[in-house]
Amino acid sequence: MGVSFDVPDYFDNIYAYGCSNSLGAQEFCQMLHRVRKPKDTTIYLALDYYKEHQSEDLITYSSVEYMLCSDYYLTNYDLHNNLLYKKLERIGHSEPESDALDSTSLVKDKDTSMSTTGVKMLSYPYKEEPIYDLYVRNSKEVVENKMNFARQFFGYAKFKENQI
Fold first, then answer.
1. Could you report the per-residue pLDDT of 11-25, keeping only the tens digit for each?
2. Which structural domain, as residue segments, surrounds residue 126?
């Protein structure tokens, strides 16, 4: 939701700078069209960086679930919230099951405490609630935006059939 500016020919151009630590790609794309009728319809963009898509950059639902159980990743990707009940548990091993994590290069912790047993991890006892699924999907979008904001932006703009 935002404010539209509908006065025709008031602004000459639209300029925007997008980066991974600001808005998400979808919000950024929507923001670009707040001015409905500028004099020149060309939008001038500057993005912080662009990285080609690589298969190891894929984030899966299960890898995000693993990230949500680690305080390191919650902090690193700013995924903390108080909407879901979670509890702290000490588990016997630090690595996830092989089928639970498809992209181990993204979520392996470099901290030496991860290699020992008895690691503290968060758990979500009410995973069947719809808000948990929404939380995981939103977290996936946040992580993808932080990893490669430009790719996410261009993907969303292409999906909305914007001329780039």
1. 999 999 988 877 888
2. 56-146
Whole-angstrom Cα distance, residue 4 to residue 22?
Answer: 20
Note whether 25 and 83 are same-domain residues: no
pTM of the model: 0.66
| Three-state DSSP class for residue 123 | strand
Same domain as 42, residue 92: no
Q: 91 φ, ψ to 5°?
A: -105, 165
138 in the same domain as 66: yes
Least confident range from 15-24, 49-58, 68-77, 109-118: namely 109-118
60 and 112 within one domain = yes
- Within its chain, how far is the Cα of 88 from the centroid? 24
Per the CB < 8 A criterion, the answer to whether 39 and 12 are in contact is yes
Rounded Cα gap, residues 127 and 97, in angstroms: 18
Q: Quick check: is 136 in a domain? A: yes
The pLDDT value recorded for residue 12 is 93
Q: In the structure, what pLDDT confidence band is assigned to residue 86 with cuts at 50, 70 and 90?
A: confident
Cα–Cα distance measured from residue 156 to residue 32, given in angstroms and rounded to the nearest whole number: 13
